[in-house]
Amino acid sequence: MAAREKLFRWKDPYDTAGSAALFVEAMRENAAYVVAHCPEYRAAAFDEGFSPDCLRTEDDLSKIPFLPTAFLKAHPLFAMPRSRRLVTATSSGTSGGGRSEIGLEFGALLAGARMVLKVAAPRKILSPSPCHYVVFGYPPFGGNTMAAAKTAFGYTFLAPALSRTYALKKTGGGWESDPDGVIRTLLRLEKSPFPTRLMGFPAYVFFTLRRMEDRGLAVRLPPESSVMLGGGWKRHYRERLDKGEMYALIRRALGIPEERVMESYGAAEHPILYCDCPAHRFHVPVYSRVIIRDPATLEPLPMGRAGLVNLLTPMIRATPVLSVLTDDFGVLHPGGDCPCGCPSPWLEIIGRAGLDEIKTCAAGAEELLKAKSLNKGDKERNPTGF
């Protein structure tokens, strides 16, 4: 059994200490595969002096050449032919820098399914009881490859769906939010004997609930109703509410208590599910590791220091995304700091690159990688040993 399969079968999804050696082995296997099958990534590895054989301990993971999400949005890279990429997912492209195109093979899809089942179990998201879904995101339709749409639609199978209502509607000019339509749906579902699950982008949840309050409206959804926030605030980051304020607004507008509000973190380029604990913190699961890098030097920072979030996982082989540098700023905290008792470190997201007050060198890292042979002219480079 390959290391990736063993890792995604690991019994405790937050036993990062116990799974450390297996995680490194899975990353070494993944690195060897993408270096052998993706000429562009092989050239970058050669220029960095990186060999998969150097991965022996978790401390070595920072040596893996990372790709900034900004680079992936402009330069699709693959380590498998299209015939083996069973699913293609794209980022939402809300930052205006293009969209990442991520291919997933059968092994990655199987690993992802196991991950969701294990990570979702502690938060009791899986249920045989039917419910209504109100999705604050994109609806699925033919040709829609956005990871956010695929993820949201997949989550509507965690409990049997009686109905699905989507807050975003496609228009001639793109996508538009339909808060009034959602409000009418919520008023109707208040009378249903079955619970409602609201899920999706927190910004659209906020805008809709604020409109309800402005109109003096409030509903009391049936017991066991819940809210699942995910996808971040994107271009609405300036309007971002403190978590406590968001939970209070949800209680006032919907009658859903804080313990029934969950949040997830992830990215199209890194489809690992980070589901918050009862204390609303994103503990790192066994399927990934997080490195915080200094924005100026890109060197790894110790726990407790803020920097650019570098995410690592051996989940996908079809696309060389074993190590990606995001445009998020965050802090990694020791697991013992969390009152929930989970031993795994937890990630705090504190900002997003692209805002005027947040400076990032992700673009600089992109230029560095471009300079290090990520172009067609260097595909002929194939150093021995890879």
Give your account of this protein's structure.
The protein is an alpha/beta fold and 386 residues long. 28% of the residues lie in helices and 22% in strands. The protein is built from ten helices and 16 strands. The strands form four sheets. Strands 1, 12, 13, 14, 15 and 16 form a six-stranded mixed sheet that branches. The protein has a six-stranded mixed sheet with strand order 5-4-8-9-10-11, sandwiched between helices. Strands 2-3 form a two-stranded antiparallel sheet. The radius of gyration is 21 Å and the shape is globular. The model is unreliable at 355-386 (pLDDT under 50).
- Helix share, percent: 25-40%
| End-to-end CA span | 23 Å
How would a textbook summarize the main sheet?
Answer: 6 strands, mixed
Distinct helical segment count:
10
Unreliable parts: 355-386
Taken as a percent bin, the fraction of beta residues is 15-25%
Which sequence of SSEs, written as H and E, runs from N to C?
HHHEHEEHEHEEEHEHEHEEEEEEEH
Structural class category: alpha/beta
Q: Given the C-alpha coordinates, what overall shape results?
A: globular
